[in-house]
Amino acid sequence: MRYERSLVVGASSGIGREIACQLAAEGGLVAAVARRKERLDELSTSFPSIQTFVHDVEAADEVPALFQEITSSLGGLDLVVYAAGVMPSVGPDEFSFEKDREIFAVNVLGAMAWLDQAAVRFGHAGHGTIVGIGSVAGDRGRAGQPAYNASKAALATYLEALRNRLATQGVTVTTVKPGPVATEMTAGLPLKNPMLAEKAARKILALSGSGGERYLSWKHRLIFAVIRAIPSPIFRRMKL
Amino acid sequence: MTRRLLPLETIRGLAGFGGAQRADGYVFQPTTVDEAREVLALAREAGRRVVLRGSGRSYGDAAIAREAVVLDLCAMNQVVGWDPSTGILEAEAGATLGDVWRRCLPDGWWPPVVSGTMFPTLGGALAMNIHGKNAYRVGTLGEHVRSIDVLPTDGGEVVRLGPSDSLFHSVVSGAGLAGLIVGVRLQLKKVPSGDVRVRGVSCSGWKDQFDAFDRYREDADYMVSWIDCFARGHARGRGLFHAAWYAEGPSATLLEAHQTLPSKVLGVVPKSETWRFLKLLNRRGCMRLVNAAKHAAGRIFEHGREGRQSLVAFSFLLDYVPGWERAYAPGGFIQVQTFVPAAEARRVFDEQIQMQQRAGLESFLGVMKRHRVDEFALSHGVDGYSLALDFKVTRANRARVEALADGLHKSALAAGGRFYLAKDTVLDGADYRLSIGDGLERLHKARERFDPDGILTSAQAERLGLL
Ligand SMILES: Cc1cc2nc3c(=O)[nH]c(=O)nc-3n(C[C@H](O)[C@H](O)[C@H](O)COP(=O)(O)OP(=O)(O)OC[C@H]3O[C@@H](n4cnc5c(N)ncnc54)[C@H](O)[C@@H]3O)c2cc1C
Hints:
Chain A has helices spanning 14-25, 37-46, 63-74, 97-125, 146-166, 197-207, 218-229, 232-237; strands at residues 5-9, 29-34, 50-54, 79-82, 128-133, 171-177, 181-182, 195-196, 213-215. Chain A has 240 residues and is an alpha/beta fold. In chain A, helix 1 crosses helix 6 (197-207) and helix 4 (97-125) runs parallel beside helix 5. Helix content of chain B is 31%, strand content 23%. Chain B has helices spanning 33-46, 97-104, 122-128, 135-138, 168-171, 206-216, 256-259, 274-281, 284-302, 311-315, 342-358, 398-414, 429-435, 439-450, 459-464, and strands spanning 11-15, 22-28, 50-53, 69-72, 79-83, 88-92, 109-110, 145-151, 159-161, 180-187, 189-190, 195-203, 222-227, 239-246, 264-265, 269-270, 306-310, 333-341, 366-370, 384-392, 418-419. In chain B, a hairpin with a 6-residue loop joins strand 1 (11-15) and strand 2 (22-28). Chain A binds chain B through residues 64-65, 68, 71-72, 75-77, 117, 120-121, 124-127, and chain B through 2-3, 5-6, 8-13, 23-24, 47-48, 66-67. The complex binds flavin-adenine dinucleotide (FAD).
């Protein structure tokens, strides 16, 4: 077992849920944090080693106390995965600040609220692994999802900074950038051969200790190296 | 009920000296009794247990506990009073054995009992009731204490306990579970110089070893023996015995300059880097050779010879190589020290040496000492001998090392043996409780008085079921 005690934020569905289940299946203790109580109850019924905590990541003020309650109740902490994320559908001409605000509150500010705690704790304790679930969507600003793209870019840069701050303190920070994954969040989208959440979670856990920015396949790594290098005026005209 | 939060940045990853057990805790280092009270109050308001910690020189998990408040006494380290006419020293519990000898040796006094390292604090040393190479003669450190000051964990008044108080013998030896020791008055030992005369006796097997201990027991001030744990057949138990006597001599030997350990090993390698070199050697094949070479050298150069050594060099041999424990990283190591009544010691130790050889897990270092019985609640004292063995732990061998340790413990227990919490990392709780008679009830009496809410804990106490 690689991680004895883990905390997964955004654990009630999708990749987060799969990660929590896989950590528990390996024999670890897991704290699962999410908004929806019924989903959490279902999780802890299937895995007795999963402890559940109801929390909406938009309530950032609750985080310090909850973080301490969780570490105390787990008896320590080795891994934190921030997997909470939202992607409301946005029309081609729509500019909704309501939606933008929610996206940033969940995808960015929530991550900072939780991972700041993890960073202080792990830095002082001299060990620990942080995993943030970014997205290939953060690599470029596309016409379709301005705020979502920006939020994942912000998350990636924040995680990079954490990685650089904590590098000498025994803490590993890994950013994973999954491509299309079949989850509730993407259920309404016309994705081309999405990865199953179960498989994405397995790959993310395998990469968790690597301490860099990771794509889930070498193909993605290659494709996105090219996409990132395309000059903006050209990128604008391409349907990527 | 809203609980107080603990400051996140006080968290530290802590380990025992052996590095084989770890736990994160919120560390606080009070400098006064009042500050210590505040830490206890904070822990209570945060709903946390408290683990007491000195220099963290216990090998296992005695001074760590997961997610607990760690009350670290190292900053309460003042020598409060010293009277060279009586040899009585008064100090705060965080003062170390090193602080004590530095203060008192120039006046011709030496701590009555010291461990193999000078870094332990007085509080930690009394919580474990340490013994030295003179245990057979003068007993444990607790036997030389005039009084201790104990701060109850509910923040009440400090209580002074002397040896005639019934709870004294439980707080001392109580493994940090029977109350917080904040102050100590200790009777030191008058010494004629800062040196000892040391005589080596090369032993070709168990018979020689036990003969040597018997021969010097009435006379020598210190006795200790090194055992080559790789030697097989008739050579089993071979090693090098040392007896030592306080030496007469010039008073200049009392000065710190004479006692200081050299900063280079063999005059060339800086001491702070030696562990790297040891790490290279720290494998079974090399250690077999090192042990054989050490035995051969002992036979040729030390047998029957007498030399002089400073008290510090003789007592704190292990401090010569600071950080030597890092040679065992990353898995760390555990020490198994079992205490066996004299009549059974030879049989049990021989059995133990064979067990570790059969397991292919020979200890890189074996140390034998002579002990006597004492009055303390969680006493490791027997009228007999102890054998200490160090086992390297890796991810791959951990289960095998633990199984071996269990076997070694069981063989000592069957012979009426005892165990020592300062060294324990993997004892079975039932074995331990069997070994200490009514010690646990006595511990609980002291806990009722000095830790009424039962907030003191340690990973070891939880593992062994002592609370
Ligand atoms: C290289 C080496 C050689 C050693 N040789 C010997 C030896 O020859 N003989 C021997 O007997 N031991 C020996 N030891 C063990 C060592 O002496 C003991 O473990 C001692 O207790 C360490 O003291 P410490 O201050 O580091 O205490 P810690 O290890 O920090 O704590 C030990 C225990 O004391 C408790 N405690 C600490 N402070 C207080 C306090 N103020 N009040 C109440 N409880 C407290 C803790 O909760 C814990 O249970 C050796 C250790 C090392 C590393």
